[in-house]
Amino acid sequence: TTPPQPFLPHLTSTGSAHMVSISSKSHTTRTAIAVGSVYFSNPTPLSLITSNSLKKGDVLSVSRIAGIMAAKKCPDIVPLCHPIPLTHVGVELRTFPLNAPNASSRAEAGPAGPDNMNFGGVQIECTVACTGATGVEMEALTAVMGTALSVVDMCKAVDKFQRIGDVRVVLKEGGKSGVWRE
């Protein structure tokens, strides 16, 4: 027998977008973890974050709260996402130092720009859980982006070339498909 053809469940047979019914799906504990990073183009943001000297305040604490709030607002942002009661949202942020041995020589070569992102940054990991009939991958991704946007907003005065990257789901648990891990 041939395997079923892949399809997008949000599209009807005529190609119209609709919200997928989850009425007949089992309520199970569902968890998703998403990650991402904000990369800096100069050493100032990392220095100010680690010394908690940024004019706007504590970047990591404010951005953690922004990520939690973003997860709760996911159905307001993603049109076909079901509003579901979340049972947990965890946001972890870790700074990381400049990562290239030639960063100082690259910095001397010219002004900072999007191709010169060797000045460290902030790693973000968001864990979201619920007990329900649909997964929380979109909420975890939205939490990462809300967190990252807050970091960018709080650091934009000292780094106009920040870059958000590597945003993705790395773990999904629950439901009939079980565990998926990157």
From TrEMBL:
It comes from the Eukaryota. This is GTP cyclohydrolase subunit MoaC. It comes from Macroventuria anomochaeta.
